[in-house]
Amino acid sequence: MQRQGSIGDANADPRIRVTVGGLLAAYLAFVAWFTLRPLDVPWVMPPNLRPFAGIEADFALGWQVGVRRIAEGLALLAPLGVLLPAAHGRITVSPLGSLIRTVAAGALISLGIELFQTGVPGQVVDVDSLMLNTLGVALAHTAVVPATRHWLRRRFEREHGTSALKEEAPQGRTPTIPRVGIAP
C-alpha cells in the first residue's frame, strides 16, 4: 500500500502542475467565452434533443458541412483530455480509471455548457455537441496521456532508481479492537 508522500507517489513537479492549472483555467475561460457569447441571428433553430439528428441535417447540406461540424465538436473540448490529467499530476495511476475520470469531467463540463446555453440569445441546446465534445476528450486522452505517462515513468525511474515506483510492501494486518458492549 502506498502512503502519501512516499517516493512511490511520483507526482509531477509542482511548478508544472501550477502551470498546467493556469492553462486549464485559461482554456476553460476561452471555451466559456466562445460557447456562451450571445449571437446576433435573425432566427434560431429549435433545441436538438434527438441524438445524431443535427449531424444528419448537416450531412444533408453536404459532406463538407457534416465533416466540419464533427471536427468542430470533437476539437472544442479535446484539450481537456490532456489538461485535466496533467493538472492532477500523478504518473502512477490506473489508465482506465484516469480515462473514466477525465471523460466524466469532460462530459460534465460539456453538459454545463449546454445547460448555460439555454439562457444565451442565439445559442441552442444540442445533444450532438455533448456527445462529440465528450468523444473528443476521450480521444485526446487516449492518444496522448498513456504514452506521456509511460515516458514520464521511465524518466522518473532513471533519475530515482528502478524500484522507486514499485509499491511498498504491506505492513501487516490492521489491528482490530474488540467491541465494547453498551452500558446498562
From TrEMBL:
Keyword entries, A-Z: Membrane, Transmembrane, Transmembrane helix
Location of region: Disordered: 162-184
Transmembrane segments: 16-36
Domain VanZ-like: 25-142
Ranges in a coiled coil: none
Domain of life: Bacteria
Pfam families listed in its UniProt record: VanZ (PF04892)
InterPro entries per UniProt: Teicoplanin_resist-assoc, VanZ-like
Name this polypeptide is given: VanZ family protein
Originating organism: Streptomyces fuscus
